[in-house]
Amino acid sequence: NTMDRRFKKVHITYKHDENYDSVINSICTGMAENDIDFSIDQYDLMYRMSIKEYEKEIGKSDVVILFVIPSYLTSIHCMFEMTEIFRNGNIKERLYPIIDLGDSIKRNGDGLKQIKDYWQNEKNRKAAQMTDEPGGSKYLIEEITIIDSIIRNLDDFWVYITNTNTGSLKTLTENNAHVLIQELKKIPIENKITSVLADDNVIQLEDAPQISKKIIQQHGEKSIVIENFSGTLNVN
Predict the structure, then answer these.
(1) Are 24 and 12 in contact (CB under 8 A)?
(2) Is the pLDDT of residue 210 over 80?
């Protein structure tokens, strides 16, 4: 299943900010250098793809790098991804957090209230818009529903980012995110190739690990190259 394989990639949830472009580039470079299969919107969110479906894909991913800066906390798209991540559970196993809130938001109860107040005000503002909205209010209702979900998940999210030792941004991401990459490489590879040759023409691969390239030599002159493939491959 193509989507099942996509969920096994390392996904990154983050807010676009040119001040952090070099950090994101370091993380992506480090994963590429270490053959870690990853997904990030600038590469994988293609023209005409559903943004919301991609955000849900992040929420279901087996491994997520959670990169939180102040503007992440006030982005409805980012915080929707957060709600999807927490809705799908296994937070301790799946999340690899990078937190850089500076002095603008305290990682305590005051910071939580600050974010809650922001989203409650947004909810009230959207509800007020509906009173003067010409025609239907479907879009505003969907936004309010997302904001409700954000508010409901904020306590669990805040407990996680305040109780988890997330290290420092510099330590985790310098030298092409070496420290972060070493942590990602500790993830056990649970998926193994269980059957290679079924007969002369069919190769069975079940739950192939996420490898960048594997070459299998056939009987005779033909060879095949398999890249991130699982399933049944017919060779003619």
Answers:
(1) yes
(2) no
